[in-house]
Amino acid sequence: MIKYLCGSYEVGFEVPEIRYLQPFTGNSNPFFLGLRYRVFKPTINQAGSKRFGMYNPVSFINF
Questions:
Q1: Which residues contact 59 (CB under 8 A, 6 or more apart)?
Q2: How many C-alpha atoms does 27 have within 13 Å on its Cβ side?
Q3: Taking CA atoms, which of 9, 28, 29, 62 is between 20 and 30 Å from 48?
Q4: What digits encode the pLDDT tens for the residues 42-57?
Q5: How far apart are CA 31 and CA 57, in angstroms?
Protein backbone atom coordinates (compact mmCIF):
# COMPACT_ATOMS: atom_id res chain seq x y z
CA MET A 1 0.00 0.00 0.00
CA ILE A 2 1.36 3.39 -1.02
CA LYS A 3 0.45 6.47 1.00
CA TYR A 4 1.09 10.04 -0.04
CA LEU A 5 0.63 13.51 1.38
CA CYS A 6 0.70 16.60 -0.83
CA GLY A 7 0.43 20.26 -0.02
CA SER A 8 0.60 23.58 -1.82
CA TYR A 9 0.57 27.27 -0.99
CA GLU A 10 0.07 30.16 -3.41
CA VAL A 11 0.36 33.92 -3.05
CA GLY A 12 -1.03 36.33 -5.62
CA PHE A 13 -0.49 40.08 -5.92
CA GLU A 14 -2.93 42.26 -7.84
CA VAL A 15 -2.59 46.00 -8.47
CA PRO A 16 -5.49 48.33 -9.33
CA GLU A 17 -6.24 48.96 -12.98
CA ILE A 18 -5.15 52.26 -14.48
CA ARG A 19 -8.75 53.33 -15.16
CA TYR A 20 -9.41 53.43 -11.40
CA LEU A 21 -6.47 55.79 -10.84
CA GLN A 22 -7.85 58.67 -12.90
CA PRO A 23 -7.89 62.06 -11.14
CA PHE A 24 -11.13 63.63 -9.95
CA THR A 25 -12.12 67.06 -8.64
CA GLY A 26 -11.97 66.99 -4.87
CA ASN A 27 -14.44 69.24 -3.09
CA SER A 28 -13.65 68.45 0.54
CA ASN A 29 -12.38 72.03 0.90
CA PRO A 30 -14.74 74.45 -0.96
CA PHE A 31 -12.06 77.19 -1.03
CA PHE A 32 -9.57 74.93 -2.85
CA LEU A 33 -11.02 72.82 -5.65
CA GLY A 34 -8.15 70.81 -7.03
CA LEU A 35 -7.45 67.51 -8.68
CA ARG A 36 -7.07 64.56 -6.37
CA TYR A 37 -6.22 60.92 -6.91
CA ARG A 38 -8.02 57.99 -5.39
CA VAL A 39 -5.79 55.81 -3.26
CA PHE A 40 -6.15 52.10 -3.87
CA LYS A 41 -3.98 49.53 -2.18
CA PRO A 42 -2.81 46.38 -3.94
CA THR A 43 -4.62 43.15 -3.11
CA ILE A 44 -2.76 40.12 -1.81
CA ASN A 45 -4.48 36.76 -2.30
CA GLN A 46 -3.39 33.64 -0.44
CA ALA A 47 -4.53 30.06 -0.92
CA GLY A 48 -3.42 26.75 0.49
CA SER A 49 -4.40 23.13 0.12
CA LYS A 50 -3.39 19.70 1.34
CA ARG A 51 -4.25 16.23 0.17
CA PHE A 52 -3.76 12.75 1.54
CA GLY A 53 -4.29 9.54 -0.37
CA MET A 54 -3.63 5.82 -0.38
CA TYR A 55 -3.17 3.44 -3.28
CA ASN A 56 -3.16 -0.34 -3.20
CA PRO A 57 -1.43 -1.62 -6.38
CA VAL A 58 -2.66 -5.18 -5.81
CA SER A 59 -6.38 -4.39 -5.78
CA PHE A 60 -6.17 -1.09 -7.75
CA ILE A 61 -8.12 0.78 -5.05
CA ASN A 62 -7.56 4.50 -4.48
CA PHE A 63 -8.62 6.53 -1.47
A1: none
A2: 0
A3: 62
A4: 899 999 999 998 888 7
A5: 80
DSSP 8-state class, residue 6: E
Report how far residue 28's alpha carbon sits from residue 1's, in angstroms, rounded to the nearest whole number: 70
CA 37-42-47 angle, to 5 degrees, is 160
Evaluate if pTM is beyond 0.90. Answer: no
Distance CA 8, CA 53 (A): 15
Q: Which domain holds residue 43?
A: 2-62
Domain count, the chain: 1
Percentage of residues in the chain having pLDDT higher than 70: 68
